[in-house]
From TrEMBL, chain A:
SUPFAM superfamilies to which the protein is assigned, alphabetical: Pyruvate-ferredoxin oxidoreductase, PFOR, domain III, Thiamin diphosphate-binding fold (THDP-binding), TK C-terminal domain-like
Segments forming domain Pyruvate flavodoxin/ferredoxin oxidoreductase pyrimidine binding: 208-445
Pyruvate/ketoisovalerate oxidoreductase catalytic domain segment(s): 14-175
Name of the featured protein: 2-oxoacid:ferredoxin oxidoreductase subunit alpha
InterPro entries attached to this UniProt entry: 2-oxoacid/accept_OxRdtase_asu (IPR022367), PFOR_II (IPR033412), Pyruvate:ferred/Flavod_OxRd (IPR050722), Pyrv/ketoisovalerate_OxRed_cat (IPR019752), Pyrv_Fd/Flavodoxin_OxRdtase_N (IPR002880), Pyrv_flavodox_OxRed_cen (IPR002869), THDP-binding (IPR029061), Transketo_C/PFOR_II (IPR009014)
Organism field: Candidatus Kuenenbacteria bacterium CG2_30_39_24
Any GO molecular function: oxidoreductase activity, acting on the aldehyde or oxo group of donors
Source organism, top-level taxon: Bacteria
Length: 572, 285
């Protein structure tokens, strides 16, 4: 059966909703189903409302739907908030709740299980989620053994007793469902894994950083960037990588720049608010021409905003942040696999061009679970460029750190090298690095830094056009919106003539390519997860094209696939 | 002869400080200390704040990282973590160390990273024409405190002692030999060293002049004062508030494991020399 199934688990925060949901996701993945896992939670440790939604299918799935097929409601709030999301014929699993909220849904299958009773029978109230997921396994028509294997992997380190208890809980839930005659949603097949890994974009970014040879990550915790720090911290000893937690974000970027200045591949990461604190030092990286990778995972802003929700509100900020003018890269991957590759490119580009590279994620990417398929671990080669060895330095006799060159790139001697002593200078400086306020040198140094732009544009990969070259409608989006658009296009199928221009290397702006695509486009729809259409404004600025059809969303939620489909259909 | 050889730490650029500025004394003492420690310019990285002292980046021949106001310490920490073989020093004014970037002083002291922080403390924002800083004495009239400073000044030595600094000293800009010894001891010390350097500003501080300093400072006698007791050090650090005297010398020194020495990843080659060949990030997944 090729039908996609959407399963949502809802309950009180603090009860492992996400962990148990991901166990189910991994079970499906290992059985050959693609999954996309999306979590919603408030900025609370306990007591708020949490959900985890799994969309699963035989084919690729990179987005979340509004409508669901199975709702595991662990509290009344889950029914109130999400009951109406159920499709006709949907299944609700609950523990003696009042289902008045969903009475009007056609053919609703009401599975009222005494979850707590069964959990206690299994050995503990904490296994309540697992009982429910055992029931879901039955509804999906899958072998419980697959789920048990995942329980072993997840809880193995907690001891045999815990695993046995969870397995019993799952069995009780699974068996309880036998008396309800619900047709299997997915046919259990002895399929092999549906890809290589399940990872969030944060996890993929962290792995990519290690692969790229990042040796220092300085950061201050901030949702939704923090899990990058968690992954790197856990792996730091295996890779001579130091994760340094600083007193604030200013110190985080300052520490990273200090390490970068002595030749280490270094990075920092945060969300928009933390990035705001880093901005002055961003300019320092620029004028000192120090390679630096800065990861910014956007959340719903300004200020504290909705700390655990998603948005694409920081694009223009990333492009313009800092007093003064300087070239930089802004790279925004569209999924976890792109994050894995592009973060590696980010380190190469930072080092080659000796400037800051901003790597832009958002909560949807950072905390959603993606299937990574056909991952090529060594696709991006480490290219160490711009250094100068001791012999060369000594032969030179008159080393100039900021030598005015044709392409604006000058060789970096590193602190510790005998013949390369110089000032890495935050003041405007001459070729040696000494401070100067002379008008001609100021102009020359600005021009030097900007000379890099041409080559930067030539080396940045162009935006990708998905679908037919000529179409009745061209959808334009950047970053995380990719998943919803790609899935929408697949779902509506070939009978609609739509293609999709996805921007990832956004700055310097790929004006030529975007202009070319827009020139031949019959109709254009911009889809952006913010209030004003920042990419659309950027496109107007850089190409002169006015994108009037803007589908914008800024309620903290990502685009649901159905709403993208509905919007697309308006234009064709 | 020693003085002549310390000249290897001069660049081709002459200092632009005001005649009589305390920076000359600190600058000479710093170069003398580096020379007497048998260091070469390329072995040293100095991270500079913005301000009069920061302009020293152009006059002092070592690797220099001229940072932002208040932000000399984080790059110093990053450089030390990145290349533990470098001697790393941060040169900051009282504005940057005790005002704008005070958190960096507190926290790097706390985890005892092996860097030396030299604070040029002249009680003024001098480069911006003499406004009050966190160390300006109460009642002082400055352009921003026309009716006299209301706020109580910070006690920087108490602050770093309380923050866990393992080496805390105070020096005087115009006692070069004594200061050079302090800087040498601070650089040699394995761990976080904080040297607060009393510095007259001839242009914008008419109260705390060379003569004034000479009337209130006295040298700690290393035979009588042992710098191994935190409580005693705090008493010494508070003497000015108690009896108007400013002891100079090493107030406190403690052998404590450095931050870097407790990070296993830093045990071998410095991070900047780690090979990037054959990395397998997915090995244990």
């Amino acid at each position: 059966m090729d039908k996609e199934v959407a399963i949502k688990i809802g309950g009180e925060a603090g009860f492992g909703i996400k962990v148990s949901g991901l166990i189910l996701g991994k079970t499906l993945f290992n059985a050959g189903f693609k999954v996309f896992g999306y979590s919603e939670y408030p900025s609370l440790i306990r007591g708020g409302h949490n959900t985890y939604q799994l969309n699963t299918a035989k084919n690729d799935v990179f987005s979340v739907t509004k409508k669901i097929d199975i709702l595991v409601a662990l509290n009344q709030e889950s029914l109130e908030l999400h009951g109406q999301e159920l499709n006709n014929g949907g299944v609700v699993i609950h523990d003696g709740l009042d289902i008045k909220d969903i009475k009007d849904i056609k053919d609703i299958k009401d599975i009222n299980i005494n979850l707590m009773d069964l959990a206690e029978k299994a050995g503990g109230a904490l296994t309540r989620n697992i009982v429910a997921l055992g029931a879901v396994m039955n509804i999906l028509g899958m072998d419980l053994q697959l789920f048990n294997q995942e329980l072993e992997r997840e809880f193995g380190d907690k001891g045999v007793k815990v695993v046995a208890m969870d397995k019993k809980a799952a069995r009780l839930g699974y068996d309880y469902l036998k008396k309800f005659k619900i047709g299997a949603y997915l046919k259990k097949e002895a399929g092999s894994k549906a890809g290589d890994y399940i990872m969030t974009a944060n996890e993929a970014t962290a792995q990519g950083m290690i692969q790229a040879g990042c040796k220092l990550y300085a950061a201050y915790p901030m949702t939704p960037a923090t899990s990058i720090m968690h992954v790197l911290s856990a792996k730091q000893c295996d890779h001579h990588l130091v994760v340094h937690q600083t007193e604030d974000e200013i110190s985080a970027i300052g520490t990273a720049i200090g390490a970068a200045a002595v030749g280490v591949r270094a990075a920092t990461g945060t969300s928009g608010g933390g990035f705001a604190l880093m901005v002055e030092t961003l300019g320092l990286a620029a004028i000192t021409e120090t390679p630096l990778v800065i990861i910014e995972s956007q959340r719903t802003a300004p200020a504290t905003g909705l700390p655990t929700w998603t948005e694409q509100g920081d694009l223009q900020f990333m492009i313009r942040a800092s007093p003064g003018e300087f070239p930089r890269f802004v790279i925004a991957p569209g999924d976890a696999l792109e994050a894995f590759y592009m973060i590696q490119e980010a380190f190469n580009l930072a080092e080659k061009f000796q400037l800051p590279v901003i790597f832009l994620l958002d909560k949807l990417l950072s905390e959603s679970d993606f299937v990574l398929e056909n991952i090529e671990q060594h696709k991006v080669k480490i290219k160490r460029e711009g250094f100068i060895n001791d012999n060369e330095l000594e032969r030179m006799r008159d080393y100039k750190r900021y030598e005015l060159t044709k392409n604006g790139i000058s060789k970096r001697a590193l602190p510790g090298q005998l013949a390369g002593v110089h000032v890495i200078n935050s003041d405007e400086h001459d070729e040696y690095g000494y401070s100067t306020e002379a008008s001609d040198m100021r102009t020359k140094m600005m021009d030097k830094r900007f000379k890099k732009l041409e080559q930067m544009m030539a080396e940045a990969p162009e935006p990708q056009l998905y679908g037919p070259r000529n179409a009745d409608l061209t959808v334009v989006a950047w970053g995380s919106v990719k998943g919803a658009v790609i899935d929408a296009l697949r779902e509506i199928g070939d009978k609609y003539s739509v293609n999709f221009l996805h921007l990832t290397y956004i700055w310097p702006f790929p004006a030529k390519r975007v202009k070319k695509v827009l020139e031949s486009a019959k109709n254009v729809l911009l889809v952006e997860n913010n209030k004003t259409g920042q990419l659309a404004d950027l496109i107007r600025q850089e190409t002169g094209f006015e994108l009037k059809n803007r589908f914008l969303k800024y309620d903290g939620r990502p685009f649901f696939r159905e709403e993208v489909i509905k919007e697309i259909k308006k234009y064709i | 002869m020693a003085v002549v050889s310390a000249a290897k730490f001069n660049t081709s650029i002459s200092p632009t400080w005001c005649p009589g500025c305390g920076n000359y004394g600190i600058w000479a003492a710093l170069k003398q200390a580096l020379f007497e420690l048998n260091l070469e310019p390329h072995q040293v990285l100095i991270s500079y704040d913005i301000g009069c002292c920061g302009n020293g980046a152009n006059f002092t021949r070592t690797y220099a990282f001229h940072s932002l106001h208040g932000r000399a310490i984080p790059p110093a920490v990053g450089a030390k973590l990145g290349n533990k073989n470098l001697v790393v020093i941060a040169v900051i004014g009282d504005g940057g160390a005790y005002g704008e970037g005070i958190q960096h002083l507190i926290h790097s002291a706390r985890y005892n990273v092996d860097i030396t922080v030299l604070v040029h403390n002249n009680q003024r924002f001098s480069l911006t024409t003499g406004q009050a800083t966190a160390t300006t004495l109460s009642k002082t009239v400055t352009p921003t405190t026309p009716f006299g400073e209301i706020k109580k000044p910070i006690n920087p030595l108490l602050l770093s002692l309380d923050s866990g600094a393992s080496f805390v000293a105070r020096g005087f800009a115009n006692d070069g030999q004594h200061l050079a010894e302090l800087i040498k001891a601070a650089v040699k010390h394995q761990g976080f060293s904080h040297v607060d350097i009393l510095q007259p500003c001839v242009s914008f501080n008419k109260e705390n002049t060379n003569e004034w300093y000479r009337s209130v400072i006295y040298k700690l006698d290393s035979h009588k004062y042992k710098a191994d007791n935190l409580l005693r050090a705090k008493e010494k650090a508070e003497e000015f508030e108690q009896n108007g005297k400013l002891p100079i010398g090493i107030l406190y020194q403690q052998e404590r494991e450095t931050y870097e020495s407790q990070i296993p990843q830093l045990a071998g080659e410095p991070l900047c020399q780690q090979s990037l060949e054959g990395i397998d990030c997915l090995a244990k997944l």
